[in-house]
Design brief:
Residues 15-74 form the HTH tetR-type domain. It comes from Nostocoides vanveenii. Residues 37-56 bind DNA. Keywords: DNA-binding, Transcription, Transcription regulation. This is TetR/AcrR family transcriptional regulator. It is built from eleven helices and no strands. The chain is an all-alpha fold. It starts with 8 loop residues before the first helix and ends with a helix. The model is unreliable at 217-221 (pLDDT under 50). The chain has helices at residues 9-30, 38-45, 52-55, 60-83, 89-106, 112-117, 128-141, 150-170, 176-190, 194-200, 208-218. The chain has a domain at 65-218: Tetracycline Repressor, domain 2 (Orthogonal Bundle).
């Protein structure tokens, strides 16, 4: 017999309102409009102005920060589901990097909220940072990566990834071969040989159904 209470109509409405506000924030961040007023945010979200502070008492800064973290949490969970079957930490890291580059090139607006935060996003202890540190630690512990503090590795490869995502925004049509070349370069930074790095980054990627599922998970309502 279940002891959990079923969601009430009120709790469902609250959840929908919060989701709508986060979706509106993601849209505005993608447009570079973090200065939008609360009135504009609630209008775009299709919710009442008075409901805003019920969900985000810290104001717009709290909303926009949560919108960025919301994207990263969803993305991190999706990538982890794709890499879990892989036993090699080098392949796990390369797969995450290559897919991120491809998604950034295909839909740059999707990661615009992340780019709006710049390198500070690498220091937020949540979602993608935690997953990346776990992957890097596994690589160091197994001897696949150079024996450095995973935090040091994260700052190095995270900077490259942010640069790649920025390139996807300002250089439409970034090719998959260019993305894979950067990914192989990152593996070499981590200590994988040039030949093996190229071989790993030439392996087939998971098919499009997984990508479609993740787009659906973060789609704006």
């Amino acid at each position: 017999m279940s002891t959990g209470a079923a969601p009430t109509g009120h709790s469902k409405r609250r959840a929908r309102t919060r989701a709508a506000l986060l979706a509106a924030a993601r849209q505005l961040l993608a447009e570079g409009r973090e200065t939008a007023s609360i009135e504009e945010i609630t209008k775009r979200a299709g919710v009442g102005f008075g409901s805003f502070f019920n969900h985000f008492p810290g104001g717009k800064d709290e909303l926009f920060t949560e919108a960025v973290l919301d994207v990263l949490d969803a993305y991190s969970a999706w990538v982890t589901s794709l890499t879990e079957p892989l036993p090699d930490p080098a392949e796990v890291f390369a797969l995450s990097f290559r897919i991120t580059g491809r998604l950034g090139a295909a839909q740059p607006d999707l990661f615009a909220p992340v780019l709006a935060r710049g390198s500070e996003i690498l220091l937020v202890d949540r979602g993608l940072r935690q997953a990346a540190l776990a992957d890097l630690r596994a690589g160091v512990d197994s001897g696949r990566f150079i024996a450095l503090d995973p935090e040091v590795h994260l700052l190095a490869v995270g900077g490259v990834l942010l640069g790649l995502m920025r390139a996807a925004v300002v250089t439409p049509g970034l090719t998959t071969s260019a993305i894979d070349a950067v990914s192989a370069g990152v593996l070499r930074m981590l200590g994988v040989s040039a030949q093996e790095a190229q071989e790993i980054c030439a392996r087939p990627l998971p098919g499009s159904p997984g990508v479609a599922q993740w787009f659906a998970a973060v789609a704006v309502p």
